[in-house]
Amino acid sequence: MMPDRSRYANNPTITIEYDCRGKRTTKDFACVYEARRFYFNKTKANKNPKLIKGE
What we know:
Blueprint: E1 14-20, E2 23-29, H1 32-44, E3 50-53
Antiparallel strand pairs: 1-2, 1-3
Protein backbone atom coordinates (compact mmCIF):
# COMPACT_ATOMS: atom_id res chain seq x y z
CA MET A 1 0.00 0.00 0.00
CA MET A 2 1.37 3.37 -1.01
CA PRO A 3 1.48 6.21 1.52
CA ASP A 4 -0.62 9.33 1.06
CA ARG A 5 1.21 11.49 -1.52
CA SER A 6 -0.10 14.75 -0.08
CA ARG A 7 2.06 14.22 3.01
CA TYR A 8 5.15 14.39 0.82
CA ALA A 9 4.27 17.56 -1.08
CA ASN A 10 7.29 19.36 0.43
CA ASN A 11 9.72 16.73 -0.81
CA PRO A 12 11.88 17.50 -3.81
CA THR A 13 11.18 16.11 -7.25
CA ILE A 14 13.36 13.09 -7.98
CA THR A 15 14.59 12.43 -11.51
CA ILE A 16 15.75 8.99 -12.63
CA GLU A 17 17.45 8.32 -15.94
CA TYR A 18 17.42 4.82 -17.46
CA ASP A 19 18.01 2.91 -20.72
CA CYS A 20 15.01 2.58 -23.02
CA ARG A 21 15.13 1.29 -26.61
CA GLY A 22 18.72 2.27 -27.24
CA LYS A 23 18.59 5.73 -25.65
CA ARG A 24 18.50 7.29 -22.19
CA THR A 25 15.10 8.37 -20.86
CA THR A 26 14.26 10.41 -17.76
CA LYS A 27 11.28 10.17 -15.46
CA ASP A 28 10.31 12.54 -12.63
CA PHE A 29 8.73 11.51 -9.33
CA ALA A 30 7.17 13.62 -6.60
CA CYS A 31 6.90 10.70 -4.17
CA VAL A 32 10.15 9.17 -2.91
CA TYR A 33 8.51 5.78 -2.47
CA GLU A 34 7.40 5.61 -6.09
CA ALA A 35 10.89 6.65 -7.22
CA ARG A 36 12.46 3.96 -5.06
CA ARG A 37 10.12 1.28 -6.40
CA PHE A 38 10.76 2.39 -10.00
CA TYR A 39 14.55 2.42 -9.46
CA PHE A 40 14.62 -1.13 -8.09
CA ASN A 41 12.33 -2.44 -10.84
CA LYS A 42 14.60 -0.95 -13.51
CA THR A 43 17.65 -2.40 -11.75
CA LYS A 44 16.08 -5.86 -11.83
CA ALA A 45 15.26 -5.38 -15.53
CA ASN A 46 18.93 -4.44 -16.13
CA LYS A 47 18.04 -0.97 -17.48
CA ASN A 48 20.97 0.79 -15.73
CA PRO A 49 19.02 3.45 -13.78
CA LYS A 50 20.79 6.50 -12.38
CA LEU A 51 19.57 9.09 -9.91
CA ILE A 52 19.97 12.49 -11.59
CA LYS A 53 18.75 14.94 -8.97
CA GLY A 54 16.73 15.15 -5.83
CA GLU A 55 15.81 18.83 -5.75
